[in-house]
Write a structure and sequence with these properties.
By secondary structure, this protein is of the alpha/beta class. The protein has helices at residues 43-52, 54-66, 118-148, 185-198, 206-215, 219-228, and strands at residues 2-7, 10-17, 23-27, 32-38, 80-83, 86-94, 100-104, 107-112, 154-158, 165-168, 173-177. β10 and β11 (173-177) form a beta hairpin. The two termini are 18 Å apart.
Length: 238
């Protein structure tokens, strides 16, 4: 069951789950706030926790509401698309053959069957994006496993609306947002390192920050750059 508390004009939806630590999130595009707490957390305790985080909530809401958004791609000829932070123009080739994508000089060529619709074209590009990430991610994980002395059991790629990555500390897995393929490659590495350190330290406490600073000193700049880059165009539902 979900309950709602109000802190001034801010409404916070509270859900209880079988977790150890409370998790507070601010969701785009409007700054909706959710709080997931351990199952037995009393409402007044959840409220006190939210009050203690109110300044963070308001700061995060301002960031989310101000963050740029990409325009909705139609997957048409000479439309701009991005790969590793660089702009490419889309070139469409209609052919009765298996759909495919190839990368050229400042050009992404999408081979698609005649009469294909926007959703079909988007699906082909999305699968190609995943294949590009699958080429890059294992090498980064291998590099940082030795540096951090931690082992990643597996990784997953998926669309995420509110996060660049995530991890499951118990299963030793990490998740990465497929939108990262559009951003500069060093930002993918930052997210990989961030999530791998979470396999050592699940929370964002002092030890986590110390490890991140030691192994990836430019993490603050990387985080700021990610926060400034455009979010994916989505049919957001609040």
């Amino acid at each position: 069951m979900t309950e709602t508390i109000h802190l001034g004009e801010t409404a916070i939806s509270i859900t209880r789950k079988g977790i150890k630590h409370a998790h507070l999130s601010v969701h785009p595009p409007g700054g909706r706030v959710t709080l997931v707490t351990p199952t037995n957390t009393r409402l007044e305790v959840a409220r006190a926790f939210a009050v203690s985080k109110l300044s963070w909530i308001r700061k995060k809401q301002a960031q989310v509401r101000a963050q740029a958004r990409e325009f909705r791609r139609e997957f048409i000829e000479r439309e701009s698309h991005y790969l590793w932070g660089r702009r490419y123009l889309l070139c469409l080739v209609e052919r009765n053959a298996k759909p495919a994508v190839s990368l050229g000089h400042r050009k992404i060529t999408l081979t698609i069957r005649p009469a294909s619709n926007r959703e079909m074209r988007e699906s082909v590009i999305h699968e190609w994006h995943k294949s590009v990430l699958h080429e890059a991610v294992p090498e980064l994980i291998e590099k940082w496993e030795s540096r951090l002395d931690v082992e990643v059991a597996d990784y997953f790629l998926q669309r995420m609306k509110t996060k660049w990555g995530g991890c499951n500390h118990r299963r030793r897995t990490i998740r990465l947002n497929t939108e990262l393929v559009k951003k500069p490659k060093d930002l993918l590495e930052y997210v990989v390192v961030h999530e791998m350190i979470h396999l050592i330290v699940p929370t964002h406490g002092e030890r986590f920050v110390a490890l991140l600073t030691k192994h990836y000193p430019a993490w603050r700049e990387a985080r700021a750059e990610l926060n400034e880059l455009a979010l994916a165009a989505e049919d957001w539902r609040e």
